[in-house]
Amino acid sequence: MVITDNHMHLYNHLRLKALKEFKKAGGTHVFLVSLLSSHYGILPSSGKDFVQIFEEHVKLVEKANEIVKAYAVLAVHPAEITILSQKWGVDRAVEIMKEALEIAGKFVEEGKAVAIKSGRPHYEVSDYVWKSSNEVMTFAFEVAKDVGCAVQLHMESYTKEGMMEVAEMAKKVGLKREKVIRHFAPPAVKEFEEIGIFPSVIAMGDNVKKAAELGDRFVVESDYIDDRSRPGAVLGPRTVPRKIKELLKLGYDEDFVNKICKENIEKLYDVEL
What we know:
The structure is a single chain. Helices cover 48% and strands 15% of the residues. By secondary structure, it is of the alpha/beta class. It has an 8-stranded parallel beta sheet. Helix 3 (80-88) packs across helix 4 (90-109) and helix 4 (90-109) packs parallel to helix 5 (127-147). The protein is globular. GO terms for molecular function: hydrolase activity, acting on ester bonds. This is TatD-related deoxyribonuclease.
């Protein structure tokens, strides 16, 4: 049985041991997402500085594949705009982030990664930074359309209006809405279906159960951060396998699990599990 964690990080705590825990709990497939430039000890002055980050992440994913089946997602995290603008100003930060997204797209074209990550800040920012973040996110949609990949989005707290706005941005550049994945999504499966964007439901509390009650158009994630200062945050590496197995105990069959952990994943990322 395939059990997929759609969004996990390996950083400075358990690293590959986290995947051994994931596998022991029943996990089989994982999408590993790169982190902020600051996690790699880099303050980019150009998009080219992300090459080192992406290459390091791809090497980590190669090692992860010795344990489970792992795929690379390359992030230009929306919080980069805050970090970079402190040094270079907002306009240059936008340029650097766009350059980095183009590079991430090339990694996808070369088969080194399957998706990119973008979004907009989840914390309060000025109107200009918000507008600039939307510009970067729209550019990420353009890159994804050009290279034919999905985009995971890190965003502010969920509102239907906010998601509809994002869906419209994707539509304007010609990116299919179902290729836009809301990371850390609530179990609002019906609303997401109406909007067209795909939810990656955070496996917190009874979210997975609530999502399942509403349908099977979702995937599941732990958003495990692997930070030694917060060892179990956001959720531990065994969480997704446990929550999927709980669905089986509740009477959902393996076909249902196959839909959310395999079929949906294959459609989103154009991979074969």
